[in-house]
Amino acid sequence: MSTVETITNPKQRKGKKGTNSAQADAIYQALDSMEAHVLPLSALVQSALNVRKRPVDEKALSELADSIQSVGVLQNLVVYPMGNDVYGVAAGQRRLLALQQLVEKGHVAPNYPVSVKIVPESDALIISLMENSHREAMHPVDQINAFIDLQKTGQTAAEIGALLGFSTHHVKKCLRLANMAPALLAELGTDTITLDQLQALSGTTDHDRQVMVWNNAFGWKKEPRHLREAIEETKTPVDNNRLVSFVGLDAYEQAGGTLEVDLFTDAGFIENAPLLEKLALDKLTLCAELLADVEGWQYGIARLERPSFYGNDGETLSFSHAPEVVIPLEFADLLAELRAREADLREQALNEEEYHEQTDLWQAVADCEKQIEDIKDRTKNQAWTADEKATKGVVIYLDRDGEPCVVRGVIDLEQQEPQCSEDESTSENWSEQSTAAVETVSTYSAALCKSLSSERTLAVQAALTQHPNVALVIVVHDMCLRVFGKPYVKQTLGIALTLPRAELLKNALTAQESPALIALNQQHEIWLSKFPADWQDNFTWLLTWEMPYLLALLAYCTAQTLDGVNHSIPADNKVALALQPVEQVIRFDFRQWWQPTKANFFGRISKDQISDCLAAAGASDKALEAVKMKKGDAAELAENILKESHWLPSCFVASSMDTHTDNANVQ
Hints:
alpha/beta, Arc Repressor Mutant, subunit A, five-stranded mixed β-sheet, four-stranded mixed β-sheet, 30 helices, 12 strands, globular
């Protein structure tokens, strides 16, 4: 979610020696030794002092209710008296809600006995915050609100941090974020913005500016550093400004925008760049929606920049290539006439000696070219069928001159990805035909494709380090491509030693404990231990090394430059395909480095896809069983069943040149 702390550091808490730490320790000891009481469920109510304010996950709550119905409440609730024999729950709100759910279903009586520990109201907020911080990571919104409540009691940031085991700096940051625009705090509560992004927007106290910068950002512009640049931007020149050309200065000023007059220029500066961007996006959105409606597309999307369809953009948008164009006869004749006229005008312009006449002729050539392109664009648009338009859309963006440009046939991946509810019941719709479904990657998310290809890249890197001769051959070949080939020819390695390690681990968080990364880290430490203390000063120490050691070091270093990551959903349904030539030569077998688990694969695909995977692995009976389970349970089942089978998803098998036998059926 963020690099900012959301769970207390127990070492830090224990290390504090101040009064507040003593207070926290005293509270913990008092709770441990406190006598438990039994109260009727009807006497317990939710409390405003409970620090968790966000809506409870209904699925998780139902599972907790089922558990309580089976084995009872295993842990005491912490409550405080509110008067009239009513007690507020400071710690244990989810258990309270689960019990109330059981009452509604008629499984327990309203006077169901609940074991509680009763504390003074003055300690309730602190106890709630301590329990929730230590039990599991609190959501940032709940933590911010809790810190505010403690600050209202007169405690400083240092005292709050010392009491709960957070750094003072962290508490101050949370308290500062409390003053952010309410709309952004609401988005933090729904996890549509991260703490890092929110901090980047805190560079101004202007709520309108904060919201405008956030709403104007798409793709890579949502990265914290770009948000920080946008929020801190104060002067935007009017001259040669494409947004000004598109929106118009009158519209900007009518919307409340102001200009800074510059004595040395006639135009001056825009003082509210986020407002100008908002006006441009609003106008582009109207254009996109109108075009989509007129041409029959499913949706219209506005962007200030042309979508790249890879990286961050590739996780939300995909580009569908236009169908083959068949030019109608009436257009074919007109095109032939325009091309003939263009050729004639071009020849006249080349032979004309009079400057003004030559200028007019070249303008006429440009006009012909424009008409030809317009006809081509029109025929391209007509090639899309109504069915294709019904599932795709258009993106309108601004070019460098502020002119709207259109990309047609865009797929919104968030709308296209299958939505699989965790608690949906599919047992009634299940049929034996489901076991015959073909497991493909076409419906995997772009993020999953990026993660899988990153894990495979790490594995191939580790394997290549064991083949120095192959590494040397690849390096020599890449150099030949640069020296003897074309300037921008595709190379196997990043010859400039661009190391993608950090990006690979960011893409695939589950790779942190992978055999590949462990092997690479071990080799790294071994090699570094062999270097002299001043190894960075010059290269002469390497002249004393024997050739086998130099080749092995070369293999390790060059292997780090391999990058087979898919930044978008691959059209051929195979991930890390770029690694195939290397894999073939070193006889790479991915099964020795990776196996699918709930964390890295099964938990990130739909329940139907999990069932298809089991069927493809020869476990058809388990496939039938999985489809009747909740998704999390089905993912665990698949992990356990296929743990020793050497099975790989088809997105890997077909792209792999493994000499290992094909996926073995599960016995």
